[in-house]
Amino acid sequence: MPRLLSPLVLALIGLILFGDGAYIHAKAWLAQVLLERAFDKSLATGEVIKPWAWADTWPVARIEVKRIGASAIVLEGTSGQALAFGPGHISRTADAGERGVAVYAAHRDTHFRFLRNVAVGDIVEITRRDGKHFRYRADSSAVVRFDASGIDPSAQGAELVLATCWPFDAVTSGPERYVLHATLIETRE
Description:
Layout: H1 2-45, E1 59-65, E2 70-76, H2 80-83, E3 88-89, E4 100-105, E5 123-128, E6 133-145, E7 158-165, E8 176-188
Parallel strand pairs: 2-3, 4-7
Antiparallel strand pairs: 1-2, 1-5, 3-4, 5-6, 6-8, 7-8
């Protein structure tokens, strides 16, 4: 009896772990579908649309780097819950396309994983939920301490900063951040 029980228990544990992993991936996939729908509805109506009723955030923009096929829905705020589902627009920074610096932050191993492939000169496109479209050119990148980003909140031009943890392949958090800076080059309504 114990010989038969051990493989069954191990199989059951394996099935539970597999199911748990599949559930997490399914939830992440569904969240992205709901975020895309909420963003599309915001574009159509001009209203703030939450992706699900209990969400503490909502889509404010779509970021794309077409050269590498990267796209992500940007959410309002950078709470832990918001960053679990996408990049966040840091509070009290400019909106994309406005005078000042718009700052978006995300996790290095999920929604901003693509930053490792963005090069100086690449075009970063932002579509806001109000339908306005902006093109930025990446003009510099730097690795900085979290408390010394070098971001100038009083910038007179329209600038964009994408920030994430550094290094990209680390498994633990650290004090360094990767900061990609871009300057507005085109606006379309």
